[in-house]
Amino acid sequence: DRAQAAAMVQAVVERCGRIDILVNNAGIIREGLFVEMSDEDWGSVLATNLDGVYHTTRLAAREMMSRGWGRIINVSSVMVSRGARGQVNYAASKGGVNALTRALATELAARGVTVNAIAPGLIETDMSRPFLGVAAGKIRDLIPMRRVGRPEEVAALAVFLASEEASYLTGQ
Question: Which of 1, 104, 120, 149 is most buried, with most CB under 10 Å away?
């Protein structure tokens, strides 16, 4: 929520003197068929996955713009382009993250701030473990590498996007 985002950004600035890099990685899933989905399940997924990005990014971007440098990295999902039964709310929230990323990159580029998104496939995390147990073989068949990804593989991409080597990349 807005108050927690403000407290987090303020704590970083107080502790470090500035905020250089923001990685928006919070995300939840509340599966259910769209026509049976509760307003609560729709709202909680969008509030966490999209509104969370809005609140933290808005505050961090102000800090970054004032110094003329910053990196904003949003974690999206391949579900935006693939879609899946029971994940309309999740796909909509991550699609919003992608649109926000592209539009904000255009706004912030002139101020030295890049904005990019990472759209990983299935990564072995606490959130994905229930899916892995139920249909591991079937899921792996859909993944080109035929395996589930590891968190450190996604982290390596975030580190690159936060680096000077990625200073030209924005809106991706």
Answer: 104
